[in-house]
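Q: What structure does this chain adopt?
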Amino acid sequence: MIFEAILSINALIYSALCNIIGLNKPQKDFFIEIMLLFLSIQGRMNFLQFGRYGKFGEQRYRQQFEKSFNFMDFNKNITLTHGSGHFAIAFDPSYISKSGKKTPGVDKFWSGVAGVAKFGLEIGGIAAIDIDNKTAFHLEAVQTPTYEDINKEGMTLLTWYANIIVQRKDVLTEISKLLVADAYFSKSPFVDKIIDNTDLHVISRLRKDADLMYLYYGKPTGKKGAPKKYTGKINLKNIDKKYFKLISDDDKSTVYSAIVYSKGLKRKIKLVYEQLKDKKNKSYLLFFSTNLELDASDILRYYKNRFQIEFLYRDGKQHTGLNDCQARSENKLYFHFNASLTAINLAKVEHWLSIPKETRGAFSMSDIKTMYHNTLMLQRFINVFAVPAYKLKNIHNVKELINFGRIAA
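A:
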């Protein structure tokens, strides 16, 4: 079949939808349709564009986006079915550009790309990092409220982020019991809420000026008062290599590990100390886990794969319209953000993970979008002009047109 990719991805979506309770056939058909549009439309993704390219009118898309959909369960099914089985949960907020002052949740949020706080929206994204495949599966994106609304709830921004994880703990722990977050989250309000309310352990990175203590393993001193717990503060520029265990040593860095006490987190942590060998900037990085039994090399590997969640946001903003929603309804915004990122999951499963690992190249969302856009337009031309596309003499030409414009066609 010439359009086997469309048929195959339809089957992929439908099989995942069958595991979601309460969806009727029209809802399933709509979801398949909207996923294909997110993969096919070049340019902005908004209701007007959906109406132009899709099977339904613009108003139908607006109405359906207002309805609830369980993206977490859908993406969990995709992840567990098609991933390697070796996962870590990643959490990372992402700035979403948005003009106008009437949209719920607009405020000033930090933009990592710009390096400043900018006016717009923010989503807290949860993803499953596939460690063996070195990629990420989107699970769910939750819009961050304004700072004023968070304060009214008696929370800080960190506790709000932690609460997102706590509310979804049962589903997340089915995937992994390790939560990876960047250095911003290595603070006690976030870590304590996760550890106290879930079965998850946190992996993150500490600041270079972190206040850490050596643990005391000697015999009781026999003196009055509380037993001795610590033997002094760790000088991070000159660690005690008798206390730390050497993990690895190569041309780029030397890695040590030890169990230490963090004053900031008020708990024991498994610290991984990476001494960099860059001649211009001899520095160090501090990684940690609240799971004291976790292997140091795994802590390093899990954290360094955390960056895969950033590629989800990059592909969403560049190719699947993550920044393009023009709605002012919280429900429509939620549907749009999650549909945009879910489309990347589907493209990744169908066109990248299906390739044997040893022959698999880099994942290119740009090529996949080009192919689906060409297929959408070609199908339209075939329908209008009644071209016999499935005749043997036309198959080669149609395949060439589908791949027209791909970087790696």
